[in-house]
């Protein structure tokens, strides 16, 4: 799966001077937020990939336990109830988890598309900032200032703080880990768990409902005035330019609370990413963890465990809930898992032994089927199987073998005699 990666132009040797009038100003806090958003988007693909691989490793671990149980149960003999229950239960859970993994992959693909769209907007934002930070003497190539409380000045005029922070931000690449000195290291930005809209890190928007002013943007550079537009939204809607005020002080990076309404591509990327993370970490993991639940009171409420008990004939098909009568069987299963999680004795390779098991098991099953075909069956002329057995029981008891569908029943004299002879 290919994931969009933000690759930003590296600014090397860009000079910033207090003597040069700023064409644009952005608060350092919001620059950091914008960089954080860029880093999160750039790393989203890798983060999702790692989550999916982690989930798949859990799937593989449970499949190994299932195979070990069957191998140790023997290839040429009927498995005991503990092994059969383990196989049935794991099969149900693994099929369900595999489907969930497929669904998670689809959500990850959706997130990748959404992230790609948002990333395009962020690239645009950085492209704008890059143009505004290039040194030069023309109006379209002036230096940008980073404004914070300490350098804003009494006249509220942005003061230059140098290019170090901005330069680091523009050199940020989501494709590889940033240096330890980089305050916007994407490895740190994408922690193991992300919740809510935190991936936006109140990003590029000040905090709460307050936008971040971008002052002194010469909007003619974007053709806004010539086109007769009152506003112009850039960078996936994160930057909004306005002609209001002589220095365009109403141009801003939008408020965090306005992202959903005014920057839908960014919001879609955030929600799609969160949905994908939840799809691969929440329900699938919970389902697999039920396979090792040690509490009987908790385990017996799992519908899949009830179905597994039915599948192996441990409870009637009409059973609606497990009772404590099945607790001993389940406890034996949990205890056996401890052994099944260990490597095979003698350094045997699981994959090799599994193929041997399948071959031997297949041969054994064929032999059982052939033996069953050679056994005489009850006549089909009687209306009930027991009548057929009873009808011939007096003289040919050996020709009528008891099966699930044919039993010697002492309902008449012939059946009684046949039953006695078989004893």
UniProtKB/TrEMBL annotation:
One Pfam family cited in the UniProt record for this chain: Trypan_glycop
SUPFAM superfamilies in the cross-refs: Variant surface glycoprotein (N-terminal domain)
Key words of the record: Cell membrane, Glycoprotein, GPI-anchor, Lipoprotein, Membrane, Signal
Secretion signal span: 1-19
GO terms of biological process kind: symbiont-mediated evasion of host immune response
Compartments reported by the entry: Cell membrane
Protein name: Variant surface glycoprotein
């Amino acid at each position: 799966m290919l994931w969009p990666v933000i690759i930003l132009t590296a600014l090397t040797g860009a000079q910033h001077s207090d003597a040069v009038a700023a064409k644009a100003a952005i608060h350092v806090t919001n620059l950091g937020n914008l960089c954080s958003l860029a880093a999160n988007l750039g790393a989203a693909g890798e983060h999702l990939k790692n989550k999916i691989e982690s989930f798949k490793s859990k799937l593989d671990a449970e499949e190994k336990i299932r195979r070990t149980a069957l191998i140790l149960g023997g290839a040429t003999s009927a498995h005991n109830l503990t092994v059969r229950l383990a196989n049935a239960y794991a099969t149900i859970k693994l099929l369900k988890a595999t489907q969930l993994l497929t669904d998670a992959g689809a959500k990850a693909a959706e997130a990748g598309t959404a992230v790609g769209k948002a990333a395009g907007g962020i690239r645009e934002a950085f492209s704008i900032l890059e143009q505004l930070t290039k040194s030069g003497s023309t109006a379209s190539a002036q230096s940008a200032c980073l404004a914070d409380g300490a350098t804003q000045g009494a006249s509220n005029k942005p003061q230059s703080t140098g290019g170090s922070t901005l330069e680091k931000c523009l050199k940020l690449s989501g494709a590889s880990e940033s240096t330890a000195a980089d305050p916007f290291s994407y490895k740190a930005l994408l922690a193991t768990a992300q919740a809510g809209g935190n991936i936006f890190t109140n990003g590029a928007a000040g905090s709460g409902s307050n936008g971040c002013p971008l002052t002194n943007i010469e909007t003619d550079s974007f053709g806004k005035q010539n086109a007769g537009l009152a506003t112009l939204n850039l960078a996936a809607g994160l930057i909004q330019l306005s002609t209001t005020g002589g220095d365009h002080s109403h141009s801003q990076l939008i408020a965090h609370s306005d992202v959903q309404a005014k920057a839908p591509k960014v919001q879609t990327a955030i929600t799609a990413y969160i949905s994908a993370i939840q799809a691969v970490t929440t329900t699938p993991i919970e389902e697999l963890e039920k396979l090792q639940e040690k509490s009987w009171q908790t385990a017996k409420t799992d519908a899949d465990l009830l179905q597994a008990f039915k599948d192996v004939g441990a409870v009637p098909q009409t059973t609606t809930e497990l009772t404590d009568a099945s607790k001993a069987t389940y406890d034996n299963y949990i205890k056996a898992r401890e052994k099944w999680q260990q490597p095979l004795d003698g350094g045997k390779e699981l994959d090799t032994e599994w193929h041997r098991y399948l071959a031997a098991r297949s041969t054994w099953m064929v032999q059982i089927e052939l033996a069953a075909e050679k056994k005489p069956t009850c006549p089909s002329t009687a209306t009930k199987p027991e009548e057929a057995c009873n009808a011939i029981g007096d003289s040919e008891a050996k020709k009528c073998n008891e099966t699930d569908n044919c039993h010697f029943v002492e309902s008449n004299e012939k059946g009684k005699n046949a039953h006695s002879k078989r004893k």
